[in-house]
């Protein structure tokens, strides 16, 4: 198995089914977890030195932080309803509690926090919904914490729907070098969901000199770590692909460089 591919496990006592830490990934910034909670189940975590973005993948919940309470948030009961999610931003040195009002799938996105922002609800109508690419390169974007929104210290969070048979994160691009304004250095995780769930996607992660070059068949609920390099994704015919991206690095800016071997297709 690729060292970049992270598979889910059975739920632990807190409902955690997937966890990526900087220690596991061998990097410095991004942490990512997924929880599946039953109706009535509660989960509490201190943020410590990290800021956190809670993304309600599906289900409805109450979310409380120090001094804030949002009741009955959430509207999509399946990721593949393809409507923007509810999310909650929680700064470092805080605490959050989520209580599931229905069965809930929760993503917890983490990166270093510096205390510059307050806890807040990120409602669906605040999110930019856009279309990227054309033809078999078309995909649909829900920005949650984009770089043009000064709403976090480190975190960049976005979800992408790629129709069956299409490519995404394509032409291949990378953000591995702190070389602004041409390219920023960002670690990244891809959390894949497939519809129907028995399907799979493909993701390749490679760098210019091919000292890193891995191609993975990614099944439903698995995640891919992208420490560097280009990272295109393909959705086979018959299976729609969703992925949730979490990025962070020394600067909260998303500037990418296309693989020069494939950039020609953008100039057609």
Please specify the SSE layout and strand pairing:
Elements: E1 5-6, E2 16-20, H1 22-25, E3 31-37, E4 42-46, E5 50-58, E6 61-65, E7 68-73, E8 87-90, E9 95-100, E10 104-112, E11 120-122, E12 129-132, E13 139-145, E14 156-162, E15 167-168, E16 173-174, E17 176-179, E18 183-185, E19 187-195, E20 200-206, E21 213-219, E22 223-226, E23 233-234, E24 240-248, E25 257-258
Antiparallel strand pairs: 1-22, 2-3, 3-10, 4-9, 5-8, 5-10, 6-7, 6-9, 8-11, 12-13, 13-14, 14-24, 15-23, 16-25, 17-18, 19-22, 19-24, 20-21, 20-23
Q: Which short descriptors sum up this protein?
A:
268 residues, Jelly Rolls, 7-stranded antiparallel β-sheet, mainly beta
């Amino acid at each position: 198995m690729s060292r970049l591919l992270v598979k889910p496990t059975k739920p632990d006592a807190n409902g955690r089914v997937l966890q990526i830490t900087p220690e596991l990934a061998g990097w410095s910034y991004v942490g990512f977890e997924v929880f599946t909670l039953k109706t009535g189940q509660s989960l509490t975590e201190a943020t410590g030195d990290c800021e956190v973005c809670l993304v309600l993948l599906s289900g409805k919940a109450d979310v409380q932080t120090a001094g804030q309470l949002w009741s009955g948030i959430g509207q999509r009961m399946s990721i593949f309803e393809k409507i923007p999610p509810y999310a909650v931003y929680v700064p470092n040195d805080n605490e959050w509690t989520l209580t599931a009002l229905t069965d809930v799938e929760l993503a917890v996105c983490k990166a270093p926090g510096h205390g510059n922002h307050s806890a807040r609800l990120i409602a669906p109508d605040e999110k930019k919904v856009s279309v990227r690419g054309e033809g078999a390169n078309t995909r649909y974007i829900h920005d949650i914490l984009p770089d043009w929104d000064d709403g976090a210290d480190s975190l960049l969070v976005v979800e992408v729907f790629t129709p069956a048979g299409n490519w995404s994160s394509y032409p291949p691009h990378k953000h591995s070098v702190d070389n602004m304004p041409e390219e920023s250095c960002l670690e990244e995780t891809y959390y894949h969901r497939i519809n129907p769930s028995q399907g799979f996607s493909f993701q390749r992660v490679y760098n210019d000199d091919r000292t890193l070059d891995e191609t993975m068949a990614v099944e439903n609920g698995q995640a891919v770590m992208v420490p560097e390099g280009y990272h295109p994704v393909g959705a086979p015919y018959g299976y729609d692909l969703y992925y949730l991206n979490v990025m962070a690095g020394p600067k909260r800016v998303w500037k990418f460089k296309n693989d020069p071997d494939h950039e020609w297709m953008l100039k057609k």
